[in-house]
Amino acid sequence: MLRNVTLASMALALGAMLGQVSADDGDQELLATAQQLFKPLPADFATPQRMLTAEKVALGRQLFFEPRASLDGTMSCAACHQASLYGTDGIPKSFGVQNRAIPRNAATVLNTAGQFVQHFGGNRQDVEEQAMRALLSPLAYGNPDYATAMAHLKAIPGYAPLFAAAFPGTADPITAENWATAIGAYERTLVSAGAFDRYLGGDTAALPPQARRGLGTFIATGCAGCHNGALVGGTMFQRFGITTDYWTETHSTAIDKGRFVDTKNDADLYLFKVAPLRNITRTPPYFHDGSVATLPEAVRVMAKTQLGKDLEAADIADIIAFLDSLTGEIPQHFREAPILPPGSFVALPVK
Amino acid sequence: MLRNVTLASMALALGAMLGQVSADDGDQELLATAQQLFKPLPADFATPQRMLTAEKVALGRQLFFEPRASLDGTMSCAACHQASLYGTDGIPKSFGVQNRAIPRNAATVLNTAGQFVQHFGGNRQDVEEQAMRALLSPLAYGNPDYATAMAHLKAIPGYAPLFAAAFPGTADPITAENWATAIGAYERTLVSAGAFDRYLGGDTAALPPQARRGLGTFIATGCAGCHNGALVGGTMFQRFGITTDYWTETHSTAIDKGRFVDTKNDADLYLFKVAPLRNITRTPPYFHDGSVATLPEAVRVMAKTQLGKDLEAADIADIIAFLDSLTGEIPQHFREAPILPPGSFVALPVK
Asked: Which of B204, B241, B264, B278 has the smallest set of CB atoms within 10 Å of its CB?
């Protein structure tokens, strides 16, 4: 957590400086500060360990929209991560197969691969692990085992050549590992750059005046202490509720113990991954449990619980103008549904 | 039913003629016969009573993908009618809100507006009635009343201007009737023309030789007696199981009484709408209950139960080559998800 404190202190110090310079100078100062705290989005989230190929991405795109690998043939990644809703489902908490209640909100899939871990509790290391384990999660795809999940795909003749093209030189490429690699490859291309990236590139006019003012307020208030990097979040864990228990402000109907749920380590009590704020104005409701429906209220809650501050309505409006500049273009290969190989879903006996 | 008999007799007579002409003449004879029985798809299914406007279609497209007008925020038209699966969901029988089991298969939304009635039992007059009643159906959107359904939409600020643009000059345009009109307008544009339409336009080479042979077999066998018109079906009711009870061939796990379920009229026992065959090779599983997973088996069952014929495997293969020519282009404004106005789904109290 040392790094968090350092960043937060720096943000506050830089924020204080902003009050002392003229408007024009201020624009350049603000840009310089923002360039320190944030980064433009990359073209994709490939890594040396996770190289992308056109075949892997194309297969992963199909598998992302594919419902027939789930227990009852109804669940796909796209079911909860809808392009129409900027990669979310618009409801506080999602549902898996057979209407099973998921205890947390479905975060957007846009830019998600750029985070240091996946899920609100950080219990998935990367998008590949997330995709693979979703196949068996009772609250997601609900398969009894990987063999059953893959048997569904093997029953659709069109998939064999697609897996063979994406994973050449293997005898039986329809595996859960390859499913995960392909979906991960696709998700690593779901990047939504926008006005803020142009701003960080030096085009200060890419942000309207209120958004720039809001950026200054965002930094001066201390938000950027945790919400930083290319995703404006997704770089660290943080306790939700530093100065106030979060549920007193969110009115959550259930208290979620955060990372503690997985680790059972007291130090992880109420620790959550800091949410990326890219596309945040388009992805209500807010927080791990979707307990807050609107962004002004979410910003108020954050300032109150994390920084002990009561923000003025005008400051909240400015911050939201800034946050709106984090809205990006939805990649066309997400908005446009791929055509899936035909084949009836056939329920398989559960051992 | 007089019209059906006339068409069926004509189809059989024309089919018999096909055996008596030379190959080249046969191509033109076959085309002429096909032009009598079938029609190219129109550009859209607008009618004088259901005129389309760009604003209505655009709004309808958004509402088609909109899950937040349902009881729990999970059900949209697009949930069961996925562009990836040619407007179907790939499972035998679909599920509504809260995993409620729908007793019938989700037919494709492509070209559906061109049918004489909607639903397998024909209990919806047109796509508008279908959309409107889905809002309240316990097995679809599950709303307790139209006011609740519309309250969900009114809670999303972005919808007011869209409804106002589509339905100008009305004080409160967010109504269930307008919801239905808009979705209907969109569905009336979901037309998927393809090779068969080019063939009917005179380009005999648009169909490969096996498909043309299959077309001849389709007509000669008597299939076109019921499967005719622009949709190659969707023009009449017919008893499923004329020469054999259907369930002895489909091995259906439940016996569905068809149109009788709604009318309680003995004459409607086992009567179903004749399914359109457009895109049929892309939309398994088959029949009202999705009881048959593959098309060769579905063609066999049809010939057996409707015409008392045992088709040879080669004839079935030819017929399927013809049916594949009924696959069309999926309209881009269906494949590409619209962007919906942001807003959290908020569960409303059910009175």
From this structure: B264
